[in-house]
UniProtKB/TrEMBL annotation:
This is Uncharacterized protein. It comes from Halarcobacter bivalviorum. The lineage of its organism: Bacteria, Pseudomonadati, Campylobacterota, Epsilonproteobacteria, Campylobacterales.
């Protein structure tokens, strides 16, 4: 009886617990030709990324989260792929790739659940 009650409590806690997102940030940006630039600790890109580009981001969480919204200026990112990251067999996050069209210039923004996580890099 106690085991059933404990299992039910754990199940309810798991189902209704909100996912804890520790942080989310951009890793790289690349153009259609494969020219890639690491932007994790940069304030501004070295190269111009006009037109279509791909942005790779990292979301540090153990749970499945709402799809992040990635934008550069007025261009909105379209989700392409995702890969889970594990450390010692424990999930620590997701690396996600987004494709953006008609890039001009602007700040790269990452938002999840309407909360801003990254907006430090200016894309030329």
């Amino acid at each position: 009886m106690i085991k059933v009650l404990l299992i039910n409590l754990l199940l309810i806690n798991f189902l209704f617990a909100s996912p804890k997102i520790y942080n989310a940030y951009a890793l790289t940006i690349s153009d259609e030709n494969g020219k890639k630039e690491h932007i994790q600790n940069k304030r501004e890109t070295d190269s111009d990324f006009n037109g279509t580009c791909f942005v790779e981001i990292f979301v540090n969480t153990k749970y499945k989260v709402e799809m992040p919204k990635v934008t550069i200026g007025t261009a909105i990112g379209h989700f392409k792929s995702s890969k889970s990251v594990y450390k010692n067999k424990i999930k620590v996050g997701e690396i996600m790739v987004f494709k953006l069209y008609n890039i001009r210039k602007g700040y790269l923004k990452i938002t999840i659940y309407d909360k801003l996580y990254d907006m430090k890099t200016f894309i030329k």
